[in-house]
Hints:
Layout: H1 2-27, E1 35-40, H2 52-66, E2 82-85, H3 88-101, E3 105-107, H4 118-136, E4 146-151, H5 153-156, H6 159-164, H7 172-175, E5 195-200, E6 211-216
Parallel strand pairs: 1-4, 2-3, 2-4
Antiparallel strand pairs: 1-5, 5-6
Helix pairs in contact: 2-3
Amino acid sequence: MTGTRSGEKRSGFCRLAVVAGMLAVSSHALAVPGKIVILRHGEKQDKYALCDVGRERSLALGFRYLGGNAADSVLPSEGPAALLAITLHTLETVSPVANIWGKPVVTYSAVPLPDQSDEEKDLLLNKLTQAAARDVLNNPLWEGKTVVMAWEHKRIASKSLEKDYPGEKITLRQLLNLDRLDGVPASWDGSNYDYLWIVTYGNPGSAVPTGFRMLKQVYAAPYDDLPSNDWGKKPEFPSGSECKE
């Protein structure tokens, strides 16, 4: 009997802890970052890993755009408040940058499974993207700061995917209110691995962004062999590359 009562008390405590956590989150609603940097993962070899070019790009990102002494940094001097990833490709892409700053990667983990159907994969990616966007716009630790999101391109923006789920927000374009701005592409083209989307939120307490720009990654030596194709254009991989679109 004592064990049962003790178990009931622990169970009740857990329920109270969950409720308290929910109240804490709700009390910090719309704790919006000042800036979100969105990028697609690097070029891939298969569904598990980046190819040689993608691995090189993951290093180049820190060298030029996302590192502590980056030549053309898009981050503040103190670095990002958080780095987020969703798939193995995105984790591999952003990990070198995370190591530069000595920060963990917050991962909304979606890994390929042998018996997973396309529908199951889509639903999982949708759910995790929604969770990530909700956290980004409500985490008081990130309020007014910069968050980096390395993501899967269809969940960044996809006109066709959005049509498949009417009445539901499933892409970052929708979830982060980028669709409220002019000039934001309706889809992230499958050929493009070499762009950064930089989103700014200038009105405290508002989740509607006030600025957006697309930045094409252009590299000097030692990374000047990386593809730097225009938006919507196919990349030219080096001869002998193991990369697949």
